[in-house]
Amino acid sequence: MSLKIAVMPGDGIGIEIVAEAVKVLNHYKDSGRLDIELEEAPVGGAGYDAAGKPLPDETLALARASDSILFGAIGGPQYDGLARELRPERGLLALRSELELFANLRPAILYPQLAEASSLKPEVVSGLDIMIVRELTGGIYFGEPRGIKTDDSGERIGFNTLVYKESEIDRISRVAFDIAMKRGKRLCSVDKANVLEVSELWREVVTKNSAEYPDVELSHMYVDNAAMQLVKWPKQFDVMVTKNMFGDILSDAAAMLTGSIGMLPSASLDANSKGMYEPIHGSAPDIAGKGVANPLATILSVAMMLRYSLDRADLADEIDAAVGKVLDTGLRTADIMAAGCKEVGTVEMGEAVLAQL
Ligand code: NAD
């Protein structure tokens, strides 16, 4: 039976970049190497425009019925004045929680051809290849009680709760160990076990699980040190696993080591490796509709889909290699443009990847 892929371009450049990534999927479909069926649905601002809410019922139903989701980006200034529950980002957050996509995979890869794009010295970042596994549906962003209240003296107090169940730590650490097995077999668990009880439990559960992965070398690091080490010598890391808030911050720092937001894919997986795949960047209203956005993060998101949800590492490797070859030829979108290279638009870049495939 065909695998069903939901395609959700969203808003802004999401529409342009997803169109190029879909060409890659169709290339494999048309050549008979991948048995897939694609179906498109609106989300974010486009969902609001189509059905009055950022995650229309039909879109959620399609997401549930699909084997994987290719997501573009959401948001735009025209939606900024909407009530909070109608804003585009609500659509993305609702998809993540409705589908229980608890494992966020954020690779930070710097193709050697783009080493100059980083604000760090080329020798520090060239060839960088880190995978950050961030817990996405628990921790302080969701913990209860939360709120702002006024105490007896009349002073206002803001409060949130950092809470993790053992089962939540167990499942995210297993995802990270499994990924480490497919990569360099080194896992660094990042916590704050010197201060937080939640982190003590985190460290205990991760350590217990490591017994089942004797081939993976496990280390632990406090989050403050991890932030320093990421900037000092990031190539020491293979896979990192951490809770929601630490992962939010560290994965953005790691992304910026590469200096090219238009190059970075991501995945959010559930317990059965069903996933939503998307570039890490937003809808870039400043360049939307101009045909200049870099489609490579989205094309690389398709590669992650093939690797982590559809069990087709062979095709994922082909796409990764094709992107490398395109960069070798000197083609660049504006965001990664460098002296001596040729600037191309979104469609030309997508076509160049197809030509390599
Ligand atoms: P952004 O990521 O959209 O853009 C930041 C900068 O990077 C902009 O200058 C943009 O032109 C550039 N950029 C981003 N992607 C690019 C690409 N593929 N090629 C070339 N340049 C690229 O972040 P922002 O400007 O803070 O947010 C814009 C909108 O996107 C907001 O509405 C925000 O809420 C939304 N947003 C959505 C997501 C998501 O869908 N996952 C993530 C972040 C922000």
Defining traits:
40% helix, globular, 12 helices, 2 domains, binds nicotinamide-adenine-dinucleotide, Isopropylmalate Dehydrogenase, single chain, 357 residues, two-stranded antiparallel ribbon, alpha/beta
Beta-strand percentage range: 15-25%
β-strand number: 14
Oligomeric assembly: single chain
Uncertain stretches of 5 or more adjacent residues: none
Largest sheet: 10 strands, mixed
CATH superfamily placement of the largest domain:
Isopropylmalate Dehydrogenase
Which word captures the global form? globular
N- and C-termini, Cα separation: 25 Å
**Tally of helical runs:** 12
Secondary structure: helix percent: 40-55%
Q: Helix-strand pattern, N to C?
A: EHEHHEHEHEEEHEHEHEHEEHHEEH
Rounded Rg:
20 Å
Return the CATH architecture of the largest domain.
3-Layer(aba) Sandwich
Content-based structural category: alpha/beta
Calculate the mean pLDDT score and round it.
96
CATH topology tier name of the largest domain: Isopropylmalate Dehydrogenase
Secondary-structure map:
Elements: E1 3-10, H1 14-30, E2 36-40, H2 45-51, H3 57-65, E3 68-73, H4 88-98, E4 103-109, H5 122-125, E5 129-135, E6 147-150, E7 156-159, H6 166-182, E8 186-191, H7 197-210, E9 217-222, H8 223-232, E10 239-242, H9 244-258, E11 265-269, E12 275-279, H10 296-308, H11 313-328, E13 331-332, E14 342-343, H12 346-356
Parallel strand pairs: 1-2, 1-3, 3-12, 5-10, 8-9, 8-10, 13-14
Antiparallel strand pairs: 4-5, 4-11, 6-7, 11-12
Helix pairs in contact: 1-10, 1-12, 6-7, 8-9, 10-11, 11-12
The structure holds nicotinamide-adenine-dinucleotide.
Residues 13, 17, 73-76, 89, 92, 261-262, 281-287, 293-294, 297, 335 line the site of nicotinamide-adenine-dinucleotide.
